[in-house]
From TrEMBL:
It comes from the Eukaryota. This is GCF C-terminal domain-containing protein. Residues 2-257 form the GCF C-terminal domain. GO terms for biological process: spliceosomal complex disassembly. GO terms for cellular component: U2-type post-mRNA release spliceosomal complex.
């Protein structure tokens, strides 16, 4: 039967374009399904008691579905392979696979996927030359994940990381167009693979910006380079991002503050406090004070500022991380408290209020009462509550309203 049927089916398949699921495709499928039904009806199984004439003359290697698969390979595969070789990988092709899956065996469809589709995808990922090419890779590659999940992880994603690294070699952090290129892969690659990639190819460029293009200058502060860095919050793994700020920003920031205090041991405390509050507000606006290790830097700054009032020796800064790698290692070793977010906020704002009280010789003490579970403090003649980064003043018995710290000082 194959020797008779194959030439006829080749003629029937001649108008068929494999990448198009049209009337010719449907007619071809109907014909193959008819042959499949005929084979399953007419060709006997090996253990049949009464083998038909087909069963006595056809070897076991070509019985039933094997005859059908043989015919499909001979008739369809040459046309499918030719179409795949001419296929633009950015054009839809999944419809062809779904169509073939409706009448071919799973083994044949899998052979098409692994022997012909996958190599084409790998090749086109590898030959991307610039960012504009890489930017759209996820659009045409990731729809194939359902067919290649394991093989993508083993074969294609490593190539993708090599290609992406090559195309962004001249990238500068002021170019935020990298986000739509990189972000689609964050939830596709494993967290470990994504972290290794950003560590090698992103963080080093961010460090270079902080070292060469950004200066902490209390008299004339330029923030734009820092904004480029902060844009990576929630893109970089948290441990990398915090370590980057801890070592490459806050170490320098605290040293600038310490030098400022050394040069002005008994003057300009109001100016220094305003500078501190400005930076704290800046980091709050960028939603960064939820990070415990960043809050710790502001607490360290308060300790330095208290030296102005106490006339004590400035604490040493040798314990600060000197490099990003050092901060990254420390972050791995630290164990965060169960719920650090609120506690660190409260400590910082309470210390700010206490600093204001010392600057203006205002009594600041806890009272033996609370408001909705919050500690009430006496600030001069006023009663206040500190909730996260906000201060509330008692305007009438049991009623508290938010107030700015400067205004609080005036009312004290």
């Amino acid at each position: 039967m194959p020797s008779l049927g194959i030439p006829l089916f080749k003629a029937l398949a001649s108008p068929w374009q494999p990448l198009q699921v049209d009337d010719d495709a449907m007619q071809l499928r109907s014909s193959f399904l008819l042959v499949q039904h005929c084979l399953s009806t007419c060709v006997a199984s090996l253990d049949a008691n009464e083998a038909s004439v087909f069963g006595t003359n056809i070897g076991s290697a070509t019985r039933h579905n094997k005859i059908y698969d043989h015919m499909a390979r001979q008739v369809l595969f040459p046309r499918i392979i030719s179409s795949i070789h001419q296929w633009n990988v950015q054009a839809p092709c999944l419809d062809m696979i779904e169509f073939l899956d409706s009448f071919l065996s799973a083994d044949l469809v899998q052979a098409i996927l692994t022997e012909y589709i996958l190599p084409r995808l790998e090749h086109h990922v590898r030959i991307c030359q610039n960012v504009s090419d890489v930017e759209c890779v996820h659009d045409w590659l990731l729809p194939w994940r359902g067919h290649f999940e394991a093989k993508f992880a083993q074969q294609v994603y490593p190539i993708m990381r090599e290609t992406l690294a090559r195309t962004i070699i001249n990238w500068h952090p002021n170019d935020l167009s990298i986000f739509p290129v990189l972000l689609p892969w964050k939830d596709v690659w494993t967290p470990e693979d994504f972290a290794v990639f950003t560590h090698k190819h992103i963080v080093k460029k961010l460090i270079r910006v902080l070292n060469r293009e950004f200066e902490i200058n209390p008299k004339a502060q330029e923030l734009e380079p820092l904004e480029w860095i902060l844009a990576w919050h929630h893109v970089l793994p948290d441990r990398q991002f915090v370590a980057l700020l801890e070592a490459e920003f806050f170490t320098k920031w605290l040293k600038v503050l310490a030098e400022w205090i050394r040069q002005n041991p008994s003057s300009a405390p109001r100016e220094i406090l305003a500078w501190y509050l400005g930076w704290k507000s800046f980091f709050e606006e960028h939603e960064l004070l939820v990070e415990e290790r960043i809050c710790m830097q502001f607490h360290g700054a308060l300790q330095l500022m208290q030296c102005i009032q106490q006339a004590s020796q400035l604490p040493g800064l040798k314990a600060l991380p000197s490099t990003y790698e050092d901060a990254l290692l420390r972050g791995k070793k630290r164990v965060a408290p169960v719920n650090p977010k609120h506690a660190v906020h409260d400590v910082n704002m309470r210390d700010v209020v206490e600093e204001y009280a010392q600057l203006h010789n205002i009594e600041f003490v806890p009272r033996h009462k609370n408001q909705d579970g919050q500690q009430i403090y006496g600030f001069g003649k006023q009663h206040i509550v500190i909730d996260h980064s906000l201060v509330f003043i008692e305007t009438s018995k049991g009623k508290f309203e938010p107030i700015d710290v400067d205004e609080l000082v005036k009312r004290a």
